[in-house]
Write a structure and sequence with these properties.
5-stranded mixed β-sheet, 8 helices, alpha/beta, single chain, two-stranded antiparallel ribbon, 202 residues
Length: 202
């Protein structure tokens, strides 16, 4: 099958994103004064297997695929795969097992595209956590330059338009003024090139 895998750190919002892409109605709720999006009116049994949570602890324990309607897809449908988070809160052994599961899913697919989910809270001035995330992703998909056209990204928890513009400007600045170590990080520079080419949100 043609597959879109959704990957990122634990708690970044991967499962919530899949519900959004699948057309689930999302309702903003507040837990301990912090806003979250709850899945409401889930459309299918498949989607009910995609669990969301208010906490930053790992909820997705193994890759879980769901096929949804997509008018732009060749067959009118696309399969989304919710993957366990990198940096799994259940420990290193669980993360290793998760990695093997993801590799098996990717290996069985006819084609693979990747949606990289990044929480705004993990982004500092030099995108250090993002660099670590890309290093992990490279282990799954191989050469980043070769696969760059198949990788897309979503930054979650960044609703304010001014903050979005600031973040876009920071991405462009990093791409234009990298440190020596950043220049040597091919995966990082490849993704910055892609991200900096996107227009700022309007």
């Amino acid at each position: 099958r043609d597959l879109v895998i959704v990957v990122g750190d634990t708690g970044a919002g991967k499962s919530t994103l899949i519900h959004f892409l699948a057309g689930t109605r999302l309702v903003k709720v507040f837990v301990d004064g912090i806003p979250h999006l709850d899945a409401s009116d889930v459309r299918s049994e498949e989607l009910r297997r995609i669990a969301t949570s208010h906490s930053v602890n790992s909820v997705t324990k193994f890759p879980c695929a769901v096929t949804v309607d997509s008018p732009s897809a060749p067959e009118g449908k696309v399969t989304l795969c919710d993957c366990p988070g990198f940096g799994d809160t259940d420990g290193a052994e669980t993360e290793i097992a998760n990695g093997h599961c993801v590799l098996r899913v990717v290996g069985a697919a006819r084609s693979v595209r990747v949606v990289l989910v990044i929480s705004r809270s993990t982004i500092d001035d030099r995108f250090r956590a993002f660099r670590v995330l890309l290093q992990t992703l490279t282990r799954f998909i191989g050469d980043m330059e070769e696969n760059a056209a198949r990788i897309f990204y979503v930054i979650t928890r960044c609703d304010d338009p001014d903050e979005q513009r600031i973040l876009q400007n920071r991405i462009t600045y990093l791409f234009q003024h990298p440190t020596q170590a950043e220049k040597e990080d091919i995966a990082f520079m490849t993704m910055l090139a892609s991200m900096s080419s996107k227009p700022a949100p309007s």
